[in-house]
Amino acid sequence: MQRLYDFLRRHPTWVDSFWAVVLLGTSLVGGAIDSDYAESMNEAALVPIALALSLSVALRRRMPEKMLVLAAAAGIAQLIFGVPRIAGDFAMLVIIYTVAAIGARWASWFALAGGLCAAPLAQMRWPEGQTGMLGNAVLAIILTVPFALAWVLGDSLRTRRAYFAQLEERAARLEKEREAQAKVAVAAERARIARELHDVVAHNVSVMVVQADGAAYVLDAAPDQAKKALETISSTGRQALAEMRRLLGVLRTGEHQEVGEYVPQPDVEQIDDLVEQCRTAGLPVDFKIEGTPRPLPSGVELTAYRIVQEALTNTRKHGGPNAGASVRLVYFDDGLGLLVEDDGKGAPHELYEEGGVDGRGHGLIGMRERVGMVGGTLDAGPRPGGGFRISALLPLKPAH
């Protein structure tokens, strides 16, 4: 039974054709059986009119507009040739419903107008002899109701389908928007992790390289200094591993992580330790704080720490062997100011241009992204008297 139902749903024209044949047979048989009925009509016009009405039912879903015109022509021919009401006239109700539901809008209004005129015209063409004019008018109004009802049902179905189509479109659009937002979120998270990895690796590895070179240089002449450099390499490596573990923990979704495995995000207070680490690595750094220190939003604190970290890393990379640096933190009422300068030879020009070159310059790109995320401003470039300068202003209120 289910297979038959599915077959009929896939072939609706076959169902319509079946009912069209039934309607045609009923019209022809009804006209032939009733002798009085047959005498009052043009028998030659009965067959083509009944065929036209039945055909409009059979093909109503495939060509609703054309079948409406065919049914209207059959109705006009019925009036002209004097063929009274037949069973096939039921096709007019069917085609009006169909056009109102799935046909073009002009066809729907044409069907409504034709349906409202059909019953009054038929009543005028074949009035009831036993009732007066008032009775015929009332009967015409009553017979108009099925045509109007067929159009209303069809138009309601059209409205309902349009509503559900709109809901489906909205759901599809929301799904696409969710996917786009998810991709943006993933890209932003990957960029954040990439910045963190760059900051951790670039800074700590540069310290380890400097210390390793120094230890190799004084290994024979000053074993104590070499031992101290190796201890610095060990502690720096442990710190890098701890931060790497924290970042990797973010990526491990669905796995249980112990609280002790994570390391708190660096803040402004740890800049002093960062400066001391650079001094130990052989880079002279002058560090000063102006204004009254106070708690800051975590995003601002992390951004400030990473900017100082990246700036000092760049000084070690590009400043030369005798470079020195200075770090200034200024607490304003509505923000935090940062100024990191060095007196070295400075970074190549292409590295501090936006975008870098050949995959380099990601540190300054990361700085700009971090500062932009907290609504701040960043200026990076060579100093007039030599060296390099990085200045940033981080507001204490998030950007809107």
* Overall residue-averaged pLDDT value: 80
Poorly predicted tracts of residues: 253-262, 354-360
Question: Order of strands in the sheet with the most strands?
Answer: 1-2-3-5-4
Oligomer: single chain
State the share of residues found in helices, binned by percent: 55-70%
- Superfamily at the CATH H level of the domain at 267-272 and 279-400? Histidine kinase-like ATPase, C-terminal domain
What is the CATH architecture annotation of the domain at 267-272 and 279-400? 2-Layer Sandwich
Got a strand count?
A: 5
Question: Cα-atom Rg, whole angstroms?
Answer: 44 Å
Report how far the terminal alpha carbons are from each other: 62 Å
Helix and strand succession? HHHHHHHHHHEHEEHHEE
CATH fold field value of the domain at 267-272 and 279-400: Heat Shock Protein 90
Please describe the biggest sheet, giving its number of strands, its sense, and whether it closes into a barrel.
Answer: 5 strands, mixed
Notable features of this structure?
Heat Shock Protein 90; single chain; 13 helices; rod-shaped; alpha+beta
Describe this structure in words.
The longest helix has 86 residues. 66% of the residues lie in helices and 9% in strands. Helix 11 links the parallel strand 1 and strand 2. With 400 residues, it is of the alpha+beta class. Strands 1-2-3-5-4 form a five-stranded mixed sheet, covered by helices on one side.
